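Working notes for the structural subgroup meeting. M.R. asked for a predicted model of this chain before we commit to crystallization trials. I am recording the input and output together here so anyone reviewing the notebook later can reproduce the run.

Input as submitted:
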Amino acid sequence: MAIEVVWTILRHENRFLLVQTATYEFVGGNWVFPGCTVEPEDKTSINTATRGLRKEVGIEGEQFRKLYDTQISKYHIQIFCCEQWYGQPKPNCEDIIGVGWFTLAEMHSLSQSLSPFLRDLLMFLSYLTQHYDRHPEEWHEKWRKCDESG
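Returned structure, recorded in token form:
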């Protein structure tokens, strides 16, 4: 049975928020998006995304949109984009040893300390950034629908 994980993308201008994890089996010491595993009390994946942001970086998120999901080894990973958040991101639990905002070029330069999955996702993030900037009203409508359906 797959372990369900939700990661959340936060973007500020041309930078993306990443967290550096403590040493664990899947992402030990790597930079990844903030997130957490799905727990029984989470009614929706958006609940998991909200809880993950609060738990890992101490911020409150709103307006989530599911972008992608994939299977990596024994993990089923859902990736959401969060349009609005409140607070200053900082390491908020013992699992997180660093927090930073990175451009795509800076993420690429992290090389081996960037999660392998995230390295593979850089081209998609580049497309996402360009498409969102050209068609924000289309994305806002999709976020509204996603928030309503959970």
